[in-house]
Amino acid sequence: MQTPKSRPGSLDVPQKLSPATPRTGRKLKTLGSDSDSMTSPSPVSKTLKDKSPKIVDRRSPRSPAIEKKRPSRASELEPQLAQLQEELKKAKDQLSSSESCKRRAQQEAEETKKQLAAMSAKLEETQKQLKELSDSEEARVQELRKISQDRDRVWQSELEAVQKQHSMDCAAMASALNEIQRLKIQLDRVCESEASQAKHAESAHAEIQSLRVELAETLGLVEKLKNQLNDSRESEDLALEEFGRAQMLLEVVKTTEETLKSEHANALESYKSLLAELEQSKNRVNSLEELVCNLQDDLAKSHKITANPPDDIKALCESGECDQSEKLKAELNNLKKESNQLRDALEAAERRYQDQSLDSTLQIRNAYELVEHAKSESCQREAELEANLKEYSAEVEELKTKLIEKENALQSISCENLKAQNKLLAERETELEMELETSESILEDLKASLLEKETRLKCITEENEQLKSEIMKREIERSRASGEALALAETAKAAEREALMKLGYLTEEADKSCRKAGLLSSLMQLKPLTRDGSRIKED
């Protein structure tokens, strides 16, 4: 009654192990796609190799053209840093896939342990069944015991070999996991170093940008100063024009002064002539006054002489005196008018001379003041502009020196980073080569053990076939013991199922070896990636 219960248990193990085969195919596909994606940046390395002479030329002695091209170097390094970060992300994805493969391998190891426990339980059940069958027929049971003992020994030897192989596989898995962890630590270090280098590069780029902004501002200020200089030159030209105009005005003023001097001289001459005429008129007035006085004396004398003259003589005298007095009065009035006119003309000439002299002196003073003011302003403006130009030129030179120092520091940092990366990559290449050699040797051992197990399985199947033929012969010969033959057939079927279980277990181990081969192929594909990365960083 226990044999039919053992059948479904024996059939469950192949059903669990059967889905293990397609997983390996998927993993190998994903690993292949990852390898293709990781080997894809080869054209980038070619382009960077084409660009490498520029970097070599930049290490040559400095020149102003190279110093102008140095900011373009920072812009060229930025896409390279982005590519390196993408490659780091891809490497991290591969690490996560390897971790998932590790977890799956652990799960499969646990499943194999469970299967081994189930197989041991089934072996115990078979032993119990054999003990039950020993009660029915002692002779046949003894033969079957011998056969079963031999088979158990074979199975035990195979189980021991499988356990040894499993322990070896576990040790290899543990070593592979340790190597993967070590690679992860190295990758983390490389990532940290690259992150620090990226931060340094970003800070240097930011400083360069700030220096560029400051340079642009200073250049703008220099342009403003140049414009102010041009404006000052234009104002200077205007001041010179005004100075020329002032000189022209001075010349005009000088000419007017000369004309005024000439007019003054003429006025003086006219004044002198007027004074002479006044003197003459005064002399005439004095003479006329003397004549009037003489006439009055004569009249008084005549009055005294002719106190009682005749009437006609009186009339004549009176008429003659009246005519002379009227004439004299008329001449006096004319002389007074002429003297008044001459005085008025003289005063007007003096006033005009004073006004003209005042106007000319004021114009001359204003012209001199304007010229001196324009000269002082132009001199002050030129001095201020020259001082500002000197200050800004000094600032521009300081900024240029700072920019050159920052670029040199950035180049030294990039060279150090490249050296460190090359060292790390060389160390990783050597380590990966050693790991590949060890993994290849492990793969060859696994393949040899798999072939041995397949040969053993073939031998077991052949022995099972022989046992089946012997059992069938005995059933034909002994028709009486049909029930016992059926029991033997069931035991043979159970042995076949156990053999199938063994085959499933071996197929699972083959899957494990295929997975390990996939991991090793991924490691093999990581090797050219590291070489490409080193070439890119060297470029």
Descriptive report:
With 539 residues, the chain is an all-alpha fold. It has a domain at 233-397: Helix Hairpins, CATH 1.10.287. The chain has helices spanning 2-17, 20-39, 42-58, 64-136, 138-305, 311-477, 482-538. Helix 1 runs antiparallel to helix 4, helix 2 (20-39) packs parallel to helix 7 (482-538) and helix 5 packs antiparallel against helix 6. The chain is rod-shaped. The model is unreliable at 1-61 (pLDDT under 50). Keywords: Coiled coil.
Outline the fold blueprint:
Layout: H1 2-17, H2 20-39, H3 42-58, H4 64-136, H5 138-305, H6 311-477, H7 482-538
Helix pairs in contact: 1-4, 1-7, 2-4, 2-7, 3-7, 4-5, 4-7, 5-6, 6-7
**Approximately how much helix is present in the residues?**
over 70%
Oligomer: single chain
Beta-strand percent range: under 5%
Distance from first to last alpha carbon: 77 Å
**What's the CATH topology name of the domain at 233-397?**
Helix Hairpins
Overall CATH class of the domain at 233-397: Mainly Alpha
Topology as H/E string?
Answer: HHHHHHH
Number of strands: 0
Any low-confidence stretches, pLDDT <50, length ≥5? 1-61
CATH architecture classification of the domain at 233-397: Orthogonal Bundle
Structural class: mainly alpha
Largest sheet: none
**How much is the average pLDDT?**
68
Rounded Rg = 67 Å
Broad shape: rod-shaped
User: What's the total helix number?
Assistant: 7
